[in-house]
Write the structure tokens for this entry.
Amino acid sequence: MKKIGHEVLFLKTSENNPRNGESTMICLPDGRILFAYTEYYSSCGEDHGMARICACTSDDEGETWSAPHIIIEKDEQAQNIMSPSLAAVPNGN
């Protein structure tokens, strides 16, 4: 089988981050790529487990990526925050 392309972004998991899931990406007005994804941060890793939205960016067309950072944290009453969606709006935001 012929390999096409190469892996440029791999989000490692751990005991305290057993799963990364649902993701989306968008090209920002300044040319960077924003990648947002669901980070599960309890030992469970199931759909009902504690999760938040994290993101990283690339300013070289996806060849390298920033360290992930939290962009939306669940509040005290929420079970989790998951399944991000990104879209450009007409005013450029």
